[in-house]
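Narrative of accomplishments. A recurring question from our advisory board has been how the design workflow behaves on a single, concrete structure rather than in aggregate. To address it, we present the structure tokens for one chain from the evaluation set, followed by the sequence designed for it. No filtering or post-editing was applied between the two.
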């Protein structure tokens, strides 16, 4: 059992690694886009509960469908346009904005400048 009760960190001290995740559409392949610094990856009861910093330079993402779970985040810096392909909706995000998307939401992100966010990803009960 993990005895950690809390973590205090900021993104300038975090160790970032490349972000590898399941490719959209459940193809069984992996995509890589941006970098992530994970602070934790499970909840007290063992379910998926990720808290992390994520960053990327100006770029357009591959298709992304929030494969790990529902994602909520806070934009630390930068701006992005998020196309929600299932609904046709377009969401503009900038520093200071909060967002939340359900697992499986098909999207494409266009980052207009270096971008960083803090994210929380959760996926159900055990």
């Amino acid at each position: 059992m993990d005895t950690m009760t809390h973590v205090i960190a900021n993104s300038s001290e975090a160790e970032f690694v490349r972000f590898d995740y399941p490719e959209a559409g459940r193809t069984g392949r992996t995509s890589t886009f941006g970098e992530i610094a994970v602070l934790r990856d499970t909840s007290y009861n063992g379910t998926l509960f990720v808290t992390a910093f994520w960053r990327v330079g100006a770029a357009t993402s591959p298709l992304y469908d929030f494969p790990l779970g529902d994602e909520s985040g806070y934009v630390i810096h930068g701006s992005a346009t998020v196309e929600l392909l299932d609904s046709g909706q377009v969401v503009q995000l900038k520093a200071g904005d909060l967002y939340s998307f359900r697992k499986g939401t098909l999207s494409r992100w266009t980052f207009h400048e270096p971008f960083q966010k803090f994210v929380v990803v959760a996926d159900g009960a055990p």
